[in-house]
Design goal:
Blueprint: H1 7-18, E1 26-29, H2 32-43, E2 55-56, E3 68-69, H3 72-80, E4 84-89, E5 92-93, E6 99-100, E7 103-104, E8 112-113, H4 120-126, E9 129-133, H5 153-159, H6 161-164, E10 169-174, E11 177-180, E12 189-193, H7 199-204, H8 224-234, H9 239-243
Parallel strand pairs: 1-4, 4-9, 9-10
Antiparallel strand pairs: 2-3, 5-6, 7-8, 10-11, 11-12
Protein name: Acyl CoA:acetate/3-ketoacid CoA transferase beta subunit
Organism: Streptomyces iranensis
GO molecular function, one term: CoA-transferase activity
Length: 246
């Protein structure tokens, strides 16, 4: 905690920033912290965001008020047309942004079965995609994922222009830092460190060499108004703190 702001609240703000400038688009956050972040963005600097994969009861302070409805057919049209920015989880992710949520070990005989591939290939090839990792560790940030579900920049480059047309990996928010792919070879680098986190701690928790500038900034602090919204309106029961304990 820094100045009364918890690590979880820095993560919420970092997730919210992922949707800055997106305009009128469907935000699809997965996880407690991304959901709080998307709602914070909607209530502050991104009022055009649509926040639903079905029935929308998550924007205002009253949980009983239905703000909108998005039938699944229309949802799929937004996904395939690029009018959706999803923030997914990742059981594994490599330096190019290849993501695994399917299994650990050889897929023919995995040591552990996870969610399955689900919509990850469609998400990454058709609309902007970001990732949320609540526990930054070498188990997640690996040299090579055991199975590719979400498609990274190296595989898209190998596929050619057709594969890259709508491919857009934006950022990876973790409990330690915010990372993006703004490097010449489109590999991960650290964009900002959360207060109290050192570059060495992030390198130690990452299973491959990571680009961290000497002057890397701190993740921005939530404003007093944002803190009030997070604590009193959006997440008064503190789901964010259970996902990222202080």
């Amino acid at each position: 905690m820094t100045g009364g702001v918890t690590r979880a609240e820095y993560c919420v703000v970092a997730c919210a920033e992922a949707w800055r400038g997106d305009g009128e688009i469907l935000a699809a956050p997965m996880g407690a912290v991304p959901r709080v972040g998307a709602r914070l963005a909607r209530l502050t600097f991104a009022p055009e965001l649509l926040l639903t994969d079905g029935e929308a009861m998550i924007v205002g302070g009253d949980p009983e008020v239905v703000e909108g409805w998005l039938p699944y057919r229309a949802h799929l049209a937004l996904v395939t047309g690029g009018r959706r920015h999803v923030m997914m989880g990742a059981s594994q992710i490599d330096r190019y942004g290849n993501q695994n949520i399917s299994c650990i070990g050889d897929w023919k005989r995995p040591r552990r079965q996870l969610l399955g591939v689900r919509g990850a290939p469609v998400n990454t090839l058709n609309n902007p995609t970001s990732y949320w990792v609540p526990r930054h560790s070498r188990r997640v940030f690996v040299e090579r994922v055991d199975m590719v579900c979400g498609v990274g920049y190296d595989r898209v480059a190998a596929a050619g222009p057709a594969g890259a047309r709508f491919h857009d990996l934006r950022c990876v928010v973790t409990d330690l830092a915010v990372l993006d792919f703004a490097t010449p070879d489109r590999t991960l680098r650290v964009r900002s460190l959360h207060p109290g986190v050192t570059a060495e701690a992030v390198r130690e928790a990452t299973g491959f060499p990571l680009d961290i500038a000497d002057d890397v900034p701190c993740t921005r602090e939530p404003t007093p108004a944002e803190l009030r919204l997070i604590r009193e309106v959006i997440d008064p029961k503190g789901a964010r703190e259970r996902e990222v304990p202080s």
